[in-house]
Amino acid sequence: MSTTSNTSKTSGGTVRVLVVGATGQQGSAVVEALKEKRLKNRYNEKIEIYAVSRDVNSKKSEELRAQDVKMVEGDISKVESFAKILENIKPDRIFFVTTPYIKGGSVSKEQQDGFAVVDAITKYCKTNTGNKPYVVFSSVGDAERLKDIPHFGSKFEIEKYLKKNSQNNTLYDYYVIRPVFFMDNFKNFSRPAYGKFSGLLQPDTKMKMISTYDIGRAVATCMENPKDYKDGILELAADDKTMNEAAIIFSRVWNTNVQYKRIPWFQMFLVNIFVHEIAYMTRRLEEAQYCEEAMLASKKLNLNLLTLKEWTKREFKTNDDFYKKKSNTWLYSVIGITLIGGLGYYYYYYKK
Ligand SMILES: NC(=O)c1ccc[n+]([C@@H]2O[C@H](COP(=O)([O-])OP(=O)(O)OC[C@H]3O[C@@H](n4cnc5c(N)ncnc54)[C@H](OP(=O)(O)O)[C@@H]3O)[C@@H](O)[C@H]2O)c1
């Protein structure tokens, strides 16, 4: 990793990297990729990896510690204490990700957290003028064009704040990556079970995709070559598939029969009521020609990013993997029927 910033370290020095979100999907992939770079990197530098977590005793934190990652207890929403963490570590590189999808989280909290990270970095840089870290923020594909989607808008605001506070790159250098739909969603909420998987998207909507594995590799590549990835934005995508095409890929790779079904109308109805933002995002992604240029832009990284087929081979080990986990469909159905029944009961007895 060439050090553009704090102190003029020469090749063979030590680079300290601080990862926010290392216990999560993207951050852990960043750590994985940095571990690879630890074995071999362009500038033959020693890489020390630090990770901030609110719980340094969690299972995931323990696992990271076992991989020679230095765990630091901290909360990014607290500017003063996070600035102190920076002061102690004096990182050359910082990766951060924000999310509304945590306990007590919301889109406005996500934005506050992102601003707090930037404020802490700014404070640290102002009091340590010799140190100029390189900061990578993971936003979301098409954050600006689709900023009307609340959790895209919050990330776009963080991007702007990161840029503004860099004071034309005098305080710190920065780069924004904008990943699209995670292939890993097929191992989480859209995981095939009993040969079927479901989701909100229409079966024939094209969707740009990237694996978190490649998000990690992309971030590590930027951190190794910060001069090439400076004060800009990279939309990050590796494949473009519909859900039906994904089903065909899963089926062919493991010689089985996997099918996609859009969730039924009553579940869609519930999503619209209870997680309206997600339903709105789905509608926008369906009409918006999502991240048209992303696959081309990502070639800049010179990495062989995994296609969905390659990712499937890597992540699903046998065709049993598409069958074993229990589908949540029954659960959603029970919730749906209970709610509709409850509403019907309420109107019948109290509103008539
Ligand atoms: N799924 C998709 O297709 C997709 C596509 C593009 C973008 N995104 C975006 O990706 C983001 C989620 O990324 P992810 O999946 O990597 O997240 P994740 O797996 O849910 O992990 C969240 C991480 O954030 C850390 N964190 C949260 N609040 C913190 C705080 N106050 N202080 C310190 N650390 C904190 C957590 O650490 P501790 O719990 O250990 O403290 C955890 O490591 C979302 O914003 C989403 O919109 C998702």
Tags for this model:
352 residues, alpha/beta, Rossmann fold, seven-stranded parallel β-sheet, three-stranded mixed β-sheet, globular, binds NADP nicotinamide-adenine-dinucleotide phosphate
Q: Would you kindly provide a written description of the structure presented here, covering whatever features stand out?
A:
With 352 residues, the chain is an alpha/beta fold. The chain has a domain at 14-183 and 208-239: NAD(P)-binding Rossmann-like Domain (Rossmann fold, 3-Layer(aba) Sandwich). Helices cover 43% and strands 16% of the residues. The chain contains 12 helices and 12 strands. It has helices spanning 25-39, 59-66, 79-89, 107-127, 150-165, 212-224, 243-253, 265-274, 276-287, 294-298, 308-315, 329-351, and strands at residues 14-20, 46-53, 69-73, 93-97, 134-138, 173-179, 181-182, 196-199, 207-210, 233-236, 239-241, 259-262. Strands 3-2-1-4-5-6-10 form a 7-stranded parallel beta sheet, sandwiched between helices. It has a 3-stranded mixed beta sheet with strand order 7-9-11. Strands 8-12 form a two-stranded parallel ribbon. Helix 5 links the parallel strand 5 (134-138) and strand 6. Helix 3 (79-89) packs across helix 4 (107-127). The chain is globular and about 70 Å long. The N and C termini lie far apart (71 Å). The structure holds NADP nicotinamide-adenine-dinucleotide phosphate. NADP nicotinamide-adenine-dinucleotide phosphate (NAP) binds next to helix 1, strand 2 and strand 7.
